[in-house]
Amino acid sequence: MADARPFEYAVLRVVPRVERGEAMNVGVVLIARASRFLAAKMALDDERLAAFAPWLTPAQRAEIAATLALIPRICAADPEAGPIAKLSLTERWHWIVAPSSSMIQAGPVHTGVCAEPQSMLDRVFSEQVAVPESHRT
User: What is the DSSP string of 23-36?
Assistant: First the structure.
């Protein structure tokens, strides 16, 4: 890997009852500072979330979906995504992956090297978040 550069990623998850710690993976955020790359990929299946946390109301699930939808926009520095989107690339990354006790949390940060950050984001998403065809009903 001649052009390989370091990257970091974290899996994003929904933790409906923080005190229980049970989580459903719903996205990945990846930063490759040398490439000036910060992006996130999300997939929230409302039916899966309803089965995983049946006590959540449709309004609560919609609020979770709306918050998750903001994360890729924050990564992309979309000026319409609020004040966090106006921070520097590194500050946005740290804000997204900072430990929290909210329903949306980042897992541990992992590191590696890659030549193509977008391809690595897609790969990690496929491995950590996407539900395999064989498991869909």
Answer: -EEEEEEEEEGGGT
